[in-house]
Request: fold
Amino acid sequence: MDKSQDTAQFVAPPWVEEGSTFWFPVQSSTVAPQVDWLFHFILGTSTVFFLLIVGLMIWFTVQYRRRPGAPLLESPHHSTALELTWSIIPAMLLIPMFFWGFIGYVEMRTPPEDSGDNEIRVTAKRWAWLFTYPQFDGFASDTLYVEEGKPFKLTMISEDVLHSLFIPAFRVKQDVVPGRYATTWFIPTRPGEYTLFCAEYCGKSHSDMLAKVVVYPAGERAEKLTRVIEIEEKETPPLERGLKLYNRRGCAQCHTTDGTAKVGPSFKGTFGTQQKLADGSTITVDDNYIRESILEPNAKVRGGYRAQMPSFKGQLKDSQIEDLILFIKSLNEDKK
Amino acid sequence: MATATITTESGSGGHSPGRNYLNESSGILSWVFTLDHKRIGLMYLVGVMSAFLLGGTFALALRTELLTPGPTTGMTHDMYNQMFTLHGAVMTFLFIIPGIPAALGNFVLPIMLGAKDVAFPRMNLMSFYLWMGGALFFVLTLFLGGLDTGWTFYTPYSIDTNTSVVSAVLGAFVLGFSSIFTGLNFIVTIHTLRPPGMTWFKMPLFLWSLYATAIIQILATPVLGITLLLLFAERTMGIGIFDPKLGGDPVLFQHFFWFYSHPAVYIMILPGMGIVSELISVFSRKAIFGYRFIAFSSLAIALLGFLVWGHHMFTSGESKMAAIVFSGITFSIAIPSAIKVFNWLATMYKGSISLATPMCFAQSFIVLFSIGGLTGLFLSTLSTDVHLHDTYFVVSHFHYVMVGSTLTAFLGGLFYWWPKITGKMYNDIQGQIAALIIFVGFNLAFFPQFIMGSRGMPRRYYNYLPEFQTYHQLSTYGSYVLGAGLFLALWVLVQSLLRGKPAPMNPWGGNSLEWHTSSPPPLANFEHTPEATDPYDYHANKYDPAVGGYVPIPKAQKTVDPYGGIE
Reply:
């Protein structure tokens, strides 16, 4: 394990996990060394002051302990110079703490421009995390898969109450608020598995709202995550896969499954039926028509609707289109 | 000891020996309808200590549950969440906030001013019954399905939960009025009832700290009241201020809430600092060092305390600029706090230091407050706060400040004024042992929490990863030691009531006005209107072994001895 972290090191007690220090879990992101360094700077300064205060207190208590019959000693009751000194010196020491903290914070809150290439959408709800990967066909899982050395940007929303995404190994924390998107970002630096906590109290199972963070070695994420997805796909029945795709890829935003028309027609009970197109001709809603509409949506637009659906060409694999068709077909069976 | 003769000997002539505020009248109604600030203070004392016992019992149950990850005692998730909520709410609203001002302050403030009572005695009684009303609402909450929001009532959880938020909110609302009444009363009393000759800068520092506290109480508490009313309306009528489903903003609630609750931290700690200023000076028999710096630092803390609430929201998504400004102002509060600590140390320099029980608590305070204050730096610093926020590091930090410091100051004040309040002395050695056990237990309970917090243990967790167990176990054992120390302190006080020696007028050698009247004081506090004294002039009295306390050095003798009649 890599123990050559560039911060002040404390001898770790035997019960802490390997690679971590007395005060901190392993450093696994680019901001972690800065946070730890500043923490130890404040710790050092505080320890000096604490020892000074307690040392003087004990010394005075012993030196000037009450002795019966001894006269009261005289000493000044104020000294403006002294009091200004012990006001100004600590004040000066606070400035670098504030300043470095502020620099570090601005960095934590400013995602690098290329982090958008690795955006991960996060949904928090009682009591689970859902991570959605737009670059992997909207694959979603309860584990956060990232990669060493690359910036990742998380765009997060809560479906119910306040939550807070906290990865101690990354020194990253951001509240997730219902009704507005929150973002955070990080560059993982150390492959391995870490824990992600919910840090904002959210009710009954708050303390069980944990997730796993997997950091893959540089260059291995695409391959490994594809394998994870394949395995998961094998284990999920096709209809369920279709429903997931339908929701994740945004079909549900325009097409309902209950018969009401939104931006586009509903799919309830349409498979196999004859439908009028905008140009007056008639087609049968079959496998080929659905496939065509996904890839070339404006080729044959249904009557009464505007041609505004985006193409999913190159975004969905044939197997995924197959899952979607199966799902749309199943909406007919529901009716019977 | 010859106490009964002391009261008559020492020139308080005219009042019959043995008559005092405790036995002036009797019967339950003489307490229920009393307008005497001392009796009201005593009733408050019993009230807040009962609340402390309740909150402390919750704390021990919580710590026991946390001995192992997962279920330990058979307590469920829901029970745990309700218990930590009520632990926090009872301790904060019913004990720490009213503890020093309403219980000890009520008793001591008018006597220190040489006044017969506070300016508005009826309002004072009213504030006590409002406190009782608020306490009843909290007890009611227990029976109406509990409360599981955390003492902070964060939205939208507090709108959503099916526990009894409404009764708890009404309780806190009523308690707010109690707090405002006390603050208002103290401000008017200090302004109008100071005796001739007592200028602002001749007031004992405890009064300065109560004055600064009162400013916060009357300016900040209404904001809490309005916030809680809005939450009440949100829950019952769905007005959509905080609920995102109705277009509201949950972070707005946090701003409102902390606009009160951060200054409230100074309601808790400032009076404690005032007590410690008195104790350090009296038990060092040396005038307080840098009186004006201490007085002004109280005001500075009170005023700056209003400008830092945003530091509770560094991770909530507030703007970077807001976070930076709040961080900067938060650091500025460290300065007046540091000034006080250095002044206390300088007061001890060349003193005549006695480690009587109250001084043991005062020194505990200095240590615990230093740890609590210095760990605040890690949380004011933006980048480290992001990691530490909502972890046990924060839990430990605020327990050091709100419990370690405020509780030891409260106990220090209680043991200091106990002979005045009850007329009885306690066993000093037992008191010192209790103070030591409390100090050791407190550190064992809370120091490991700093470490597990920075290692990533989030707060308000019923369940936790096995790697945190060592710290949780240390912390739980520490809480048992702390509990034992507190029960020993209670036992010492109860023993003193049962078989304590009668207290002399001035057992410690203080020179503020409460030590110029008998113990316990008569109904009107003094037989004759006293003259203002220099509260920190320790050449004015000397120890008299025959009395078991300090007696004034006659003026004639003082003029003969230009050095002030040193023993």
Notes: Helices of chain A lie at 32-63, 80-108, 221-235, 238-248, 287-295, 318-335.
